[in-house]
Amino acid sequence: GLQKAKRYLLTGDLLTGREAAEIGLVTECASAADLDTVVDAWAERLANGATRAICLTKRSLNTAIRQQGQIYMDLHLGLETQTYLSKDHREAANAFVEKREPRFTGE
Questions:
Q1: What domains does the chain contain, in order, with CATH numbers?
Q2: How many CB atoms are closer than 10 A to CB 19?
Q3: Angle, nearest 10°, between helix axes 35-47 and 51-84?
Q4: Number of C-beta neighbours around residue 17 at 10 A
Q5: Nearest 5 degrees, angle CA 46-CA 15-CA 84?
Q6: What are 14-56's pLDDT values in tens digits?
Q7: Number of other residues whose CB lies within 10 A of the CB of residue 90
Q8: Has this prediction a pTM greater than 0.90?
Q9: Cα separation of 47 and 99, whole Å?
Q10: CB proximity list for 11: less than 8 A, separation 6 or greater
Q11: Which of 99, 76, 95, 75 is closest to 87 using CA atoms?
């Protein structure tokens, strides 16, 4: 949940497909060799389901996500602007260009 999200957002740690599935970030993880089979199985299951109910459920979820997403994006934009204007941001960009580890000061 929230604690896992914080971990990845605050540390920038990368995660594998399997880890993403384990924490619920993705529905399922498949190897490259099995990908087509897994996708085909999902597509068939949805196509053979109650398509009207699936459509309306998807619409309901997407509407809720969009509404909450807009609130989050408005907040995030202001905070991201503060980050972008910080000394630490400039240090990160300079360190990247200079191919060195950044030295953050919290400013």
A1: 49-107 (1.10.12.10)
A2: 15
A3: 130
A4: 13
A5: 105
A6: 999 889 988 888 888 899 999 999 999 999 999 999 999 999 9
A7: 13
A8: no
A9: 50
A10: none
A11: 95
